[in-house]
Model the fold of this input.
Amino acid sequence: MRTADLPQIRSLRLFESMSESNFEALMQAAYLQTFPAQLDLISEGDPADFLYVVVEGCVELYARSNGRESTMGMIRPIGTFILAAVLRDAVYLMSARTFQKSKILLIPSENVRDTFEKDEAFARAIVLELAGCYRGVVKEHKDMKLRTSVERLANRLLRYHRDQGGNGTVELPYDKRTISSMLGMTPENLSRAFNTLKPYGVEVDGSTIRFSDIEALERLAKPNPLIDERSM
Amino acid sequence: MRTADLPQIRSLRLFESMSESNFEALMQAAYLQTFPAQLDLISEGDPADFLYVVVEGCVELYARSNGRESTMGMIRPIGTFILAAVLRDAVYLMSARTFQKSKILLIPSENVRDTFEKDEAFARAIVLELAGCYRGVVKEHKDMKLRTSVERLANRLLRYHRDQGGNGTVELPYDKRTISSMLGMTPENLSRAFNTLKPYGVEVDGSTIRFSDIEALERLAKPNPLIDERSM
DNA sequence: GGCTCCTCTTGATAATTATCAAGCCTGATT
DNA sequence: AATCAGGCTTGATAATTATCAAGAGGAGCC
Done:
């Protein structure tokens, strides 16, 4: 790995408080690679050989069964994926592919587990990260079990709106096919869900969404911090 | 806490490898209590004051939003719940109530976090438990996003069947209303899903289910280890 | 027994979501 | 400019799931 990249990695929450020597040893074993878009990184069922850290770009996690496929999440800098499989030395439960061209750090699983044993600060950071991922899935699962697809879309739009500054306009961060899969619906249904939201002041123009009545949208969406807040 | 209960607790995977002194200190701070059935233990949104360990009985995790409610999981001995909230010092994302009369160990969050720092073996056990819970939710989420309700029921029945010895008969572990909520459907729909499975050799007699054509059921269910296997 | 409560089931209907088949639009290519 | 491909939308229809209402059956109780 190029030494020029080290400070950037070191500043990630996962690594910033561990000892210098342990960090160096871990990086000695790791690879930092750039992958083109739409490249398969891992496949569900494979043994967890590496922990992945997305340094730049975006990675899509997805799962398959029965010939169906569903997007399970999008990982952006700085995020890890399949940490749980690495820690348990188990197989991956999800597949992953680059969504955009991405710079990714690969750390061999064994080194992650060894360092976890040796470095208390790293162990603490790992646990916080893992617990955060866990809570993320719980929220997704609640979203799925407690809401209709229109409600899921409305709440997702409100979240993007807040993330992007809340000035009445949102730029969709992914293409609509991907968003529909994230939300657990078909692309056709996403189109119709946008139409359903029109009376609530949601105007669609390609990947730009404009809101003319946020309050009406919120009344419909009934956002719930215990589902929609990323940080909670 | 009564000293008579200590050996039982000590033998739990979470505690068995930690140091004796740290275990004693942790237990000094903990409470072991027996609660009657259907008692609310925690409510989503509350700060995580305790880590809960189900020693005997059964606890239901559930979530609410929009006036809807859904069962998120059932915790049986020996299982923990809301570990992630405790570790992150955050609020609970799920509510919990006893399903049966249950004996539950309550450990103050702060002591869990302190001991996590002090005791490396405990930290390791915590991480394995947390990673296991995480993978459990991911599987539930895949189940929900990739399968219809009839498929979810078929696979759940096959899982119970395997757990109970696979002799062609299953005793449902919960009442049907609870099972329907776990599977993300209404009680009415569960009834109909059982009817749909009749041509596949599934015969319902109260809470006893008999299978006369497991292979047909498996062809319908298409079980997937990466969703249905508890241990993976 | 008779009563009551409760869960579960069934029927009728409605709402939600998926599927299939065009068609539209846009951006890239030639 | 013409062509083409891909993503998105729309319409028609079907499948899935939920809702509302009613009834069957069982367990507990007086």
